[in-house]
Amino acid sequence: MNQKIKSVAVYCGHQFGNNPEYARDARKIGELLARNKMTLVFGGGNVGLMGTVSSAALENGGNVIGISTTHVASLQEPAHKEIDVKIVDGLSPRKEEMFELSDAFVILPGGIGTLDEMTDIMTKQQVGESCKPIYMMNTAKYWEIFGQVMTHMQAEGFMPSADDYNLHVVNTPEELIKRLLNGNDLVTSCKAL
């Protein structure tokens, strides 16, 4: 197989959320990334969905790269003990490091930090700095409200069509891995939207 996507950043909550389906899908994604020889790039924490996806990847022999910050690691996301986590000076360098190391991005359920990471990648696409694919894991329809917000922004003239972004909504971990493996969402030339 001529796999084009070799490393995937996964953005997700440092909590579990209220629905057990979130952790179930996070675990399955970590497992499938490892089994398909894709490197997991993540925020370095060992708690919540972040800890779930990374532990599942490790348990299945996966390559895992963690990027955290001094402040975050000391307060709310203790670094994962089973991997070497790179510690950077702040959230912006953390996002940039994860961006540089990744061929694609997967957005699991999460809070403001996860939303910030996703919209940062979308902003890079809007100004033509990135065309790497983004996959929103719509477990239990978690991201449907965000889709409505994007539709509203477009209708009010503040953003191009959501279809213009290399953004894809997936509903199961299996659908996600299939798309990552076929590589059809990779774009060779970036342009501002």
User: Are there runs of 5+ residues with pLDDT below 50, and where?
Assistant: none
Largest sheet: 7 strands, parallel
Q: Fill in the CATH topology.
A: Rossmann fold
Mean pLDDT: 92
Order of helices and strands: EHEHEHEHEHEHEH
Molecular shape: globular
Question: In the residues, how many domains can be counted?
Answer: 1
- Secondary structure tally: strands: 7
CATH architecture field: 3-Layer(aba) Sandwich
Percent helix: 40-55%
Largest sheet strand order: 4-3-2-1-5-6-7
Kindly summarize this structure in a few lines.
This protein has helices spanning 20-35, 48-59, 70-75, 91-101, 112-126, 144-155, 173-182; strands spanning 7-11, 39-42, 64-69, 85-88, 104-107, 134-137, 167-170. The protein has 193 residues and is an alpha/beta fold. It has one domain (7-182): 3-Layer(aba) Sandwich (Rossmann fold), CATH 3.40.50.450.
Describe the 3D structure:
- The protein is of the alpha/beta class and 193 residues long.
- It has one domain (7-182): Rossmann fold.
- Helix content is 42%, strand content 16%.
- The chain contains 7 helices and 7 strands.
- It has helices at residues 20-35, 48-59, 70-75, 91-101, 112-126, 144-155, 173-182; strands at residues 7-11, 39-42, 64-69, 85-88, 104-107, 134-137, 167-170.
- It has a 7-stranded parallel sheet, with helices on both faces.
- Strand 5 (104-107), helix 5 and strand 6 form a beta-alpha-beta unit.
- The chain starts with 6 loop residues before the first strand and ends in an 11-residue tail after the last helix.
- The relative contact order is 0.17.
